[in-house]
Amino acid sequence: MPDQRLEELRAEAAGLIAGAPGTPEIEELRVRFLGRKAELTGVLRSIGELPPERRGPVGQAANAVRQELERLLTERHATLEAAELEIRLVADRIDVTLPGDPAQEVGSLHLITQTRREIEDVFVGLGFEVLEGPEVEFDYYNFTALNTPPGHPARTLQDTFYFSGDVLLRTHTSPMQIRMMESREPPLYGIFPGKVYRRDSDATHTPMFHQIEGLAVDEHITLADLQGVLLEFARAIFGAEREVRLRPHYFPFTEPSVEVDVSCFNCGGTGSLPDGRRDPLCKGSGWIEILGSGMVDPNVFGFVGYDPEQIQGFAFGMGVERIAMLKHGVPDLRMFFENDVRFLEQFGR
After folding, report:
1. Can you give the pTM of this predicted structure?
2. What angle do CA 125, 170, 134 make, to 5 degrees?
3. What is the CB neighbour count within 10 angstroms for residue 291?
């Protein structure tokens, strides 16, 4: 083959390669110019038939053309392949935020969190504000300002974890009652959820648990107002037919103080199951204790500068775990903290 034909072949192939619209066309050109039946391949195979003086120059020129065409084909293929990939990526875009198939189960709120939010919703609907406070508290707010001075017997019932002489993990969320009254003037209506700490550990007590306390301070507040608020709460949580009962009790920061019972939702307040057996939930009494409460002691108002002759108030407190145990029939408080998925997933929402 004359050198002129090799140059024509190279120029023709280079032009077609540069104008190829896609990778399939590039593959066709590769077969056409470098395949087994290609003209250039035939030249390389027939070099042995040429006169000895022509073999070297023709073979060298043909190999140079072949190498250049291979380079042009490779470069053009890579360029076209990248462009085609970009087009496919745009056309086949996948929203990775969509759930898989089959959809994976998602997590849910812990039963304690569910119960806490349910209680908060009830009191917000009654006009109370939700406030949170520090878990690490001063002795003054945790005990003294709540009418429990040093040496008071009630302190021994709530021995907790101390960091120093007057800094401790709070034993209740009641310190927020003092903090709220210190920072505002009546009327006040607030509830205070959060973790609290005591030295208890058994089937019905843990060293850490959740509590919600409430405070209402205004003119002409009476025990009847407290009873009405707690009746609405009990009916919202345990059923519209529930009743509440107040029993005399003692708390250092309320006077008078009362324990609050709700009519048993398991036996309807009768104390007996339909088959005549004694109801184990209320122990046959028809009532279940749910929280403690009372009218704010005038001494507490003295710590925040309120005049007890002008305003009155009531306070209450409940354990979130206890409400959850009663409502959902959980037999052991410790189950809330063991992280057994078989237990927790029963209450998924």
Report:
1. 0.67
2. 65
3. 23
Based on the fold, state whether residues 115 and 7 are members of the same structural domain.
no
Smallest CA-to-CA distance from 116 within 239, 212, 190, 260 is with 212
Confirm if 259 and 289 have CB atoms less than 8 A apart: yes
- Same domain for 343 and 248: yes
Determine the 3-state secondary structure of 12 from DSSP: helix
Residue 327 CA: distances (Å) to CA of 151, 226, 235, 320: 38, 22, 12, 11
Count how many domains the chain has.
2
Which domain range does residue 27 map to? Answer: 3-91
The answer to whether residue 98 sits within a structural domain is no
Strands 188-197 and 208-218: antiparallel
Q: How distant, in Å, are the alpha carbons of 266, 273, 275, 281 from that of 278? A: 11, 6, 9, 9
Q: How many helices (H) and strands (E) does the chain have?
A: 12, 9
Tens of pLDDT, residue by residue over 291-308, are: 999 999 999 999 999 999
**Residue pair 211/194 in contact by the 8 Å Cβ criterion:** yes
142 and 72 in a common domain: no
Chain segment 24-49, per-residue pLDDT in tens: 888 888 888 878 777 777 777 777 67
